[in-house]
Each structure stands twice: as structure tokens, then as C-alpha cells.
Amino acid sequence: MSGTKNRKSGTKRKHEESPQNTSTVAPPAKQRMVVTPWRDTAEFSTVYEWLFSKQTTPANLRKALSQMRIWSLRRGSLCPASVLATGVLVQAQLEDKQGNPNIQTTYASAFTRFFNFMSSIMQGFNMTSMYDTAKQLGLQSFIVDLRHLCAHGQELPPAVVLRRTSEHCLEWIRNFYWLPQNETMCNLDAPKLQRKDKAAFEKELKALMEIYDLALECHLMGADKLKAVSKLKSSAEFNKIRVYCSAKKIKTTTEMIDKVISDLGAAIKRQNSSMKDLLDIYMASVLKMKYFLGAGLKHSEDEELVIQATQSLFRLFAVQGYIENIFVAFVQLAENPNADDDSRQGASYWGTKMLQTFGMLSRMKSMYTEELDKNPNMKTVDFTTLNKPEMSKIMRSLLIHSGVDLTLTLVFGECPKKPRSWVFEREFLMSRLDPLSLHSVPIFKGLLPLVEPPLTAEQSDDLTKLCNIKMQYTNGETSKNSIDDKVKEEDYNKSENTTFGIWTVEKENNWSTCALGVLPTNLA
User: Fold this and answer.
1) How far is CA 519 from the centre of its chain?
2) Do residues 48 and 18 lie in contact, with contact meaning Cβ atoms separated by under 8 Å?
3) DSSP for residue 396
4) Do the beta carbons of residue 1 and residue 35 sit within 8 Å?
5) SS3 of 34, please?
6) CA distance 137 to 147
7) What is the pairing mode between strands 33-35 and 424-425?
8) If we measure between CA atoms, which residue out of 55, 151, 72 comes closest to residue 108?
9) Which DSSP string do the residues of 287-305 spell out, in sequence order?
């Protein structure tokens, strides 16, 4: 079912349709969005023509009735009451034309249901206010009298009266409901439709990420207390920090960072996992934190402080199962030629840092597997505990022997629900070659030892050379021809015969001695 804009519709039947006086022109109403049982305005207009066209036929009426039944099945009790009321009258008219011998009973039932359907859209409807209800709807009072006779009378009205009254009621409901709907209703562009919960989630994440970015900047700049923050930040930014600290009853930027991480985790848990754009909103919010992106570059001399301050954020990503998504987002940003250089450099920094952690985790798992082969009784190691400040002795030992500087390395583990091996397919690596740039080269090099199946030493060397050439070329240090000359001088002259992929470059200049797949050096 598609969403449409409809000035007379709502979520509940009593609010779906507002009474309209056919004798006066109603003021223009503000359009609003509702979900309708018809696919689009064309489907509604088609049924309208089947019902009320001067050239309509019983066959068209039956098609309209069938379509209205489909609408009822689609929306159930939320199908507009006017549609249901129209259906009972049309059904009675069709049976009348087919010569139903009990047509009076059929019409009586139809009128009773028609009035009940229409009364259901009014608030405070009861048996003693039927005339008031009819007046508010714009129905003549004799319809109420006829309804009483049909429902409670000892003798039903003549068929001719019922037949003419059904025609009158259909014309009334056309003016009351069908015509205004057909003239004012319009389709919505579903891709541009933004759900309220999505907008609220975006707003919440934006506010939290903004506070995190401000707190991180103040912390790394040495402003931990609010007094120091007031001297560092503008009045508007300081006010945001002050309001957040007051609401959370905290006093330092260190506490702010911890509290924002807690609030981010709670915000994700509150969201329905079926929210289609949740991950995209989350990733976009992370990449909008300008200070966070460039923190490692701005504080390169105090990198230990940067890693310590951002450790909890990456552990949150790991717990939520978003580590891989965050990494891919950094890679794509570093490769994006349309992004600004500062963002690309920051994404390159964090992507490289995450690769160092992936390598550390791979070595830790390899060491654990080797120890487990030697000692089957060894205690099970849970790599999700790396997301917590406290960990087991075995995990700490593996961490120490992983060969990294823990003060300069992000430490996070697996997601409890998404355990994985920290390796990447060759296809992922090779797809990085085309957009390779000065900013993405460090990430590309970091991927080489984590490719599955592993690269040979020769393949790894060739790709490393390609990265080095790319960095020199994009830096503008030398021209393409001088790069080729440098490669020849430093690499090809190391040995008499040099293999490059399937080609062998030989220093022999005589064509007659060059085998197939071999190029003379002076022509290479």
C-alpha cells in the first residue's frame, strides 16, 4: 500500500473523515500524510469513475465493489468508513438490478449499515443523538427516520422509496467523500518520506556526537574542568557542555566522554532493529565529528593521550557489531576524491590504526590456537572481554605477546553476537587499487598481511612498490618518466634477469635471443 496525502484522512476511523456541509464551501485544509488502502491516486480515481460516471455499467459497479473489498482486506478496521458505506449501498443496488425477491430486506440492512458506518466517524455518537449526528454530517433527517423503520419498524418501506433513497445517499456520499478526496489527494514520493522516529534518532545522535567531539577536544587540549573549558570554547559551545554536564550531574570532560558513550549505547538499544537506515545514520554521524577525525594528526606528539581518550568509543563500536562498518566507512572516505583533505587524512589515520588492531587480534588468535594444540585443557579465551577494562590473565598475556605498543594501539575485541576472523578477501583488497590515492595508500599497505588467502612475498612486494610509486606520483615529487627510470635503476639492475608478474625484463639487447614473454631492457 502506498502513502498518500489526504486532507480528510487519519489513523482512526472516527478521525479519518470530517463532516462536510455540501451547501457551503469548506475552507482549504492543511494536507497531511496518511496510509491508504489504495496503491495510488490513479487506483482511487479509477474506482471513482466506475462508481459515479454517467456511462457506468453494472459490470463497472461490480469491479468497483471488488476493488473496495480488496481495500477493506488491506486495511481492515482502518479502511475509511465512507468506502465501506458506499460498498453496502452499491451491493444492494446490484442485487436490485438482478431481481432479488427480498430486495426490501437487502436495502433495509444496507441503510442501517450505511448510517452506522457514517456515524462511526463522529465523536460522542449514541442513539439519542442520531438527528444531531445526521445534521453534522449534512444528511437530511428523513434518512434517520428511514434507518429507524429499517431497523425497528414492523413493516419495511416500499422498494421504490428504498431505491430512490439509495440513489440519493450515493450522490450525497460522492459529494461528501469521494469528490473531495479525488480532487485533493496526491501521491507521496516514498524515498523522500522521513519517518518521525528516524528524524528523532538523527537529532539525538547528532547532539550526542557533537557533545563527544567537544568533550574530546577539550580533554586533549588539557581543559578537563568547566572553568578551563569556558576559557577554551566559545560561549555557545561552552553552554552546550555546561547544560549536558548539569543534566548528567558530571563535572569533567573525562566524565563527559564516558557518559556520552553510555548514552550512545542506550540510544542504539532503544531503536527497533528493523529501522532500515539506522546503520547509515550512525556511520554518517561518526564521520561528521571533525575534531575526532583529525585528533590523531593534531596531537601526533601526544598520540598516547588520543588513543586513551578514544578507546571507549571503539570498544562501543565493537560491542554493537559496527567495527567492520566503521572501518569500511573510513576506507571509503579516504578514497573519496570529493571529500576535503583533512577528512581524508583523518579517515586514513583511523583506518590504519584499526588495521593495526586487526593484525594484533589475528596474531593473538594464532598464538591461542597454538597453545590450545599443545595444551587441550587450557581455559577457553573469550575475545569479547577485550571490550572491557578488565580481562583474564591469559588474554592479558596474549595481548602483551602480540608485539604491539599497547599505549599506541586501539584495544577492542569481537562483538558477542558477531564473532569473526580479522582477515579480508582478496577481492576487497584489489577493489582498492582503482581509487588508490595518497590518503588510502597507508590503509592499502596495512591490508596486505590480512588478506585471505595470503599473498605471496612476491605479490606483496609488487603491490608495495605500486603503493610507493603512487605516493611519489601523487605527492608531485617527480614525474612519471623519472619514476620509471628510478624503478629501473633501483630494481631492474639488481640482477641480470628480473621477473615482474608473467614478464621477465632482460638486459640483453639482441632481439634474436629474447624468448617469448621477455622484453629487452632498452625497450621496457
Assistant:
1) 53
2) no
3) H
4) yes
5) strand
6) 15
7) unpaired
8) 151
9) HT-HHHHHHHHHTGGGHHH
pLDDT at residue 16, rounded to an integer: 46
Cell numbers placing 34: 496518511
Residues 6+ apart with CB under 8 A from 315: 386, 387, 388, 411, 412
* pTM greater than 0.70 (yes/no): no
Residue 482 maps to a domain:
no
As given in the structure block, the three cell numbers for residue 343 are 577528512
Q: Which of 288, 312, 329 is the last residue of a domain?
A: 288
Tell me, yes or no, whether 38 and 182 share the same domain. Answer: yes
Mean pLDDT value of segment 199-221: 93
Residues 6 or more apart in contact with residue 260 via CB below 8 angstroms: 208, 211, 212, 215
Residues 68, 101: one domain? yes
**Inter-residue contact 473 to 483 (CB < 8 Å):** yes
Same domain, 272 and 163: no
What residues have CB less than 8 Å from 185, skipping those under 6 apart?
4, 5, 6, 41, 44
Which residue shows C-alpha cell 631492474?
A: 492
378, 391, 524 from 394: Cα distances, Å: 10, 8, 55
- Report if residue 486 sits inside a domain: no
Range of the domain at 265: 197-288
**pLDDT at residue 14 above 90?**
no
**Into how many domains does the chain fold?**
4
Angle of CA points 121, 127, 133, to nearest 5°: 40
d(CA 455, CA 442): 17
Same domain, 150 and 10: yes
Nearest-angstrom CA–CA distance, 416 and 448: 27
- The C-alpha cell that represents 301 in the structure block: 606528539
Cβ-count burial of 62 within 10 angstroms (0-12 exposed, 13-18 middle, 19+ buried)? middle
Identify whether the C-beta of residue 3 lies closer than 8 Å to the C-beta of residue 188: yes
236 and 310 part of one domain: no
Q: Pairing relation of β-strands 503-506 and 497-500?
A: antiparallel
The position carrying cell 577536544 is: 217
Q: How far apart are CA 21 and CA 10, in angstroms?
A: 19
Exposure letters 17-26 (e unless 16+ CB within 10 A, then b):
bbbbeeeeee
The SS3 call for residue 123 is coil
Tell me which residue of 29, 27, 35, 28 sits closest to 5, measured CA to CA.
35
What's the pLDDT tens digit per position in 61-110? 999 999 999 999 998 888 999 999 999 999 999 998 888 888 889 988 88
pLDDT digits (tens, 9 = 90+) for 427-485: 999 999 888 888 999 999 999 999 988 999 999 999 988 888 877 766 554 444 444 44
33 with 168, same domain: the answer is yes
pLDDT above 80 for 492: no
Contact 238, 229 (CB under 8 A): yes
User: Same domain, yes or no, for 372 and 231?
Assistant: no
